[in-house]
Design goal:
single chain; alpha/beta; Rossmann fold; two-stranded antiparallel sheet; EC 6.3.5.3
Length: about 220
């Protein structure tokens, strides 16, 4: 499997993503600048966390207009696997690939800690490798408070689009939401950082299962 790791001005988790899939998962990856216009030859797209374009206007609002975004939207619409983490989640909502929006944490403070998540849908292309109902991943965000209107929430619940929920809801997200997919199930956005939890040396390994799930799903499809 070959991953494209998108690099925006202000991305700061791109190297972490690369390390997770290359050094820990054993797959291929390439750091792809926001100025690229093609995803030819890639099997999955990873949009990392950070502060794309300094988070001016709104988080992800400027990145949504980067040259690479039409290719990402087309890739997703064709069924390709796309993962957006933290700022990447915000970019995906701004681009319309995922419903809802991310607001400031209810505490109005930046939160950086390990948090427990419940895998609410284990039967996705991002969670199929997990054999446990709960995992622990780090979070690091100031605007991770997920919101959508009641009709959208009900639709996501009915479709199984809510993939991860917080057990302690640190940011005030509606329905404890930590990660969701689109209706087709091939685009995942989440605030917690799986790429920061892929080796025992750093204290957590629960993030590796997500990348393993993506690799398995792609190889099965091939």
């Amino acid at each position: 499997m070959r991953f494209a790791v998108i690099v925006f001005p202000g991305s700061n988790c791109d190297e972490d993503m690369y390390h997770a899939v290359v050094d820990q998962l054993g797959e291929s990856a390439q750091l792809l600048p926001h100025t690229a216009t093609s995803l030819a030859g890639f099997d999955g797209v990873l949009i990392p966390g950070g502060f794309s374009y300094g988070d001016y206007l709104r988080c992800g609002a400027i990145a949504r207009f980067s040259p690479i975004m039409p290719a990402i939207i087309d890739f997703a619409n064709q069924g390709g696997l796309v993962l957006g983490v933290c700022n990447g989640f915000q970019v995906l909502t701004e681009a319309g690939l995922l419903p809802g929006a991310l607001h400031e944490n209810t505490s109005l403070e930046f939160i950086c800690k390990d948090t427990e998540l419940k895998i609410t849908n284990p039967n996705t292309r991002f969670t199929s490798a997990y054999t446990t109902d709960t995992i622990t991943l780090p979070i690091a965000h100031g605007e991770g408070n997920y919101y959508c209107d009641p009709d959208t929430l009900a639709q996501m619940q009915a479709n199984g689009q809510i993939v991860f929920t917080y057990t302690d809801n640190p940011n005030g997200s509606v329905a404890d939401i930590a990660g969701i997919t689109n209706a087709q199930g091939n685009v995942l956005g989440m605030m917690p950082h799986p790429e920061r939890a892929v080796e025992a040396l750093l204290g957590l390994t629960d993030g590796l299962g997500l990348f393993e799930s993506m690799a398995q799903a792609t190889k099965t499809a091939l």
